[in-house]
Amino acid sequence: MTGDRKTRKRATRPADAGRDRAIRLAETVGPYGPGAIIDILGESFMAPTGDEWPSERFLNEVECKRLSERLQVTKLYAAPSQGESSRGVGMRLTFSRFPSWLFCQKCRRLQRLRAADDDGSMPLCSCSGRLVPMRFVAGCTDHSHVQDVDWPRWLHAGPVPDSCDPQHDIQFVSNDSGFGLASLELRCGGCQAVRAFDELDGNRLRGAGVRCGGKQPWQRAGAAAQCEAALVVQQRGATSLHIGESISAIDIPEVVGRAVAVEDAIKRDALFAGLQQQEEDAFRTLLAERIAANVGGSVEQVLRVADDSGALQLAAARRDLLRDEFEAFEAAAAGEAPIENFVTRIMPFAGAGPSAPLNGLFEHVVLVDRLREVRAAVEFRRYRMDAKPVPAVLGRATESRWLPAVEGWGEGIFVRLNGEAIEAWSRADGVEGRVLQVKQNQAASSFAARFPEATPKYVLLHGLAHMLIQELAFSSGFTAASLRERIYAGEGGDAGIFIYTTTSDFEGTLGGLVRQGERERFAALVARALERHEWCANDPVCRESGPQSLQGLNLAACHTCMLISETSCEASNLLLDRACVVGNDQIDGLFSPAMDEMRRHAIMGASGG
C-alpha cells in the first residue's frame, strides 16, 4: 500500500522502525478516512479524526468554494504528504493501534499493548514471536463507538480471579475437534478456564459485565460519554465497522451559485426563525410557501434548509452540487469558454448503421479532457446506517470549521439523454408501478436520506451508467474500479450521466477514456453495452426478480450483470434495475424499441436484405 512521493501518507512510525507504513493521499478520505481500520504489513491501525491531525498551519489547503459553501465549512485541508510542495514537511498522521489486544504467533499468548507503551515499532513477544492483532472487536449499536473486546473478562465470564495474570496466562488456540468459530478458544493457564469463540456475542459480553466505553480508540478516557447501547461483536475487517460519508464536487466554471444564494436568502427571511420553531405541519407549509414566494425558491427547498437533520442536509448538498454541475455541462455544450480545470469539447451523438436507432434517445456528448474533483470526508457511522454519525473533525461545531479533503485530476465523458423521451417512457404501462416497489422500500429503509430518490428516471440512468462503466473497462484501458459515476436526474428534463476517472497526480490522465466518447466510437460502445446486458447468465431468475438485495432496493440486478465496484457507484450498488434499460416480460425499457430496430438491422444485414 504505497504510492509515489506526491501521494503517500504515513501511519505512525518511529524513524528507526525500518518499516514503510504508507497509504495514498486519496485514501485518507476513503476508504481509510477518519475512523476506518487499516491493515498494513500485518498490523492493524485506526485512522484519526481531523482534530488529531497536525495543526492547520502544517496542512495543505484544498480550494473548492462551491463544496465548502454547501458543507458549511470555511476550509478544506489535505493531510500532510511526502511531496516536496507539502507545507507540513516531516509531519505525519498518527494512527492508533487497534485492536490493542494482540496474540503471539509462536506461543499464542495474549498481550495488550497500551498506547503509552507503544513506540511504533513492530510488536514482539518475549519469546521473540511476532504479535498480531486479534480479529474481533466490539461495536456500539447506536452511537458508533468501538472498543477492544475485554478478553480476560469474557473468558472468565466476569472479574478475573486474582490468581490469573491476563497479560501472561491467556492463550488463543485452535483445537481439532470443532469447526469454524467453535474450533477457536481462549484458555487461561492460571484457572484453566476455556471458552470457544462460538460463544462470543454482545449478550455474553454484557453478561460478563462489559459495557460500551462511549468513545473512539484514539480518545482519552476523559472524552468518554455515558453510553448504555448494546454491544455487538464484529470482525475488524467487517465493512459495517466503518460506513464513511464523503461528498465530492467537480471544479466547474462560475455559471451558477444560484442554490447557495437562494439558501442564504431563505435564512435571512424574517419568517425563517418562526419556521424552525414551528412543529405543526400545516403551519410549516404555510410559512414555507410565504418564504419561497419572498426569495424565489421552492417550498421543498425552504423546508430542506429549515430541517436540522444532518442526513437531509447532506442529501440537499449533493442535489445542489449535482444541479450546478449539470448546468455547467449544458453551458459547455452551448459553447461557453472552459476554465483551466474544466476543459471540454462538445461531440454530437452520431450513431450510424446498426447504432442509428439510438440517435433519438441521446442529445449530445461533452468530453472533459481535464477536470478537477475535490472530495471531502464529512462523517462516519458504525454497524448501522441509522446510528449516530461521528464528525470527521470532532468538535468542529465550536472550533475551526474545516474538513479533510483530497483533490484529483482526470478526464470524463458526460452524456445528455433526451428528457422528453425519458418522461414519455416513465409514463408507459407498468414502469412507475415497478419502480414504486423500490421507492417504498427506500422510504422505509435506513437509506431514505442517504441516496437519491428512486424515480424511474434515476433507476434508468443509474443502470445505464453501470452498463457503460463495464463496457468502457473493456475498451478504455481503465479498470472498472478506477471509473466513477455521477447521475443527473433532477427535476424537469434534466437527464445526464458523467463517467470519469481521476488521479492524485496534477498532470492528470492520458486521454484513454475521453477517446471512447468521440463521434466514431461512442454510439457503437453504447450499442455493445446494451446488447451485452440484454441477457444475464442468471436469467430468468435475475430478469424476473422482485425487490431484492439490501432492504429490497434492487430489482433485476446481480453480480453477473449490473453490480460494479462500490467505490465506483454513488449509491452502493443499490437502486438498480436492468429491466428499466433493456426491458423484460413485464415492461419495455427505454432502449427496448431501439434494440428491436438494431436487431432487425443486423438480421437484414446478415441476410443481404
UniProtKB/TrEMBL annotation:
Organism placement in taxonomy: Bacteria, Bacillati, Actinomycetota, Actinomycetes, Micrococcales
Superkingdom as given in the UniProt entry: Bacteria
Residues in MrfA-like Zn-binding domain copies: 464-562
One Pfam family in the UniProt entry: MZB
Organism: Agrococcus sediminis
Official protein name in the record: DUF1998 domain-containing protein
InterPro entries xref list: DrmB (IPR047721), MZB (IPR018973)
